[in-house]
Design a protein that fits this description.
The chain has 186 residues and is an alpha+beta fold. It is built from three helices and nine strands; from the N terminus they run E-H-E-E-H-E-E-H-E-E-E-E. Helix 2 packs across helix 3. The radius of gyration is 17 Å and the shape is globular. The two termini are 32 Å apart.
Length: 186
Amino acid sequence: MPDLRTFFAIELGDGARRVAADVAGRLADEPGGDGVRWTRPEAYHVTLRFVGATPVDRVVAMARAVQERVAGFAPFALRLGALHAFPSPRRPRVVTLELHPVEPLVALAEAVERGVVEAGFAPEERAFRPHLTLGRVKERAGRAPRLHASLGPADAAPFDVASIVLFQSVPADGGSQYTPLARIEF
């Protein structure tokens, strides 16, 4: 059986999803907005750890290891923040929204990472950068809308985080399809 493509993430609350979709819609209408492949609002999530190729017979053990690592977490609230572009505003590849507060997100991502590594997967080499992806700049477009504060969220749209989800990602036309494999409550 082929490997699954997996990742651990936080789901957004409905209010935050609507606010983020509004921001993306306004950005899409800006000059350069057509140079971005905008994420579908139903696919919005905050990635804590992209695992990638995961043998089917290791999914349960990995989820269990992560569950043990996040068991001590208490629910917390997040809110949307300012617009950003990775790696830089001058040469953006990804258009994102910040999330606040950062501290519980970083601690949660570190716990997920420990669980994934304990389950026998290679450590993540890149530093965790908490964000919500709104869209990716198309390779050939080479341009994106200019990000300015007035296009950011007018409402911080706080939402509660009381669980994380292990998703399977299946690339498809129009964007990857995400299927929940396990929900891990705090």
